[in-house]
Amino acid sequence: MDAVIQINRRQRNNEVDWEQRRYEIAKGILCHGYDRMQYTTEAFTDFDTEKVKLAVQYADALIAELKKGK
Fold this sequence. Notes:
Elements: H1 2-12, H2 18-35, H3 41-45, H4 49-68
């Protein structure tokens, strides 16, 4: 219930949930990278934490640029 209240407060104040955006961006980057492998078994056996870390770094860089625009 606390999470719902917090979301409502952010929406009311027109605030961006940057942690949620970070998750969405990193997820999109990872999905795009693995989608390009056409869902072969290589896509799943080649999955490693370095790719995850890189996706998060890209997401952080994008968010930093987005925040500059304010």
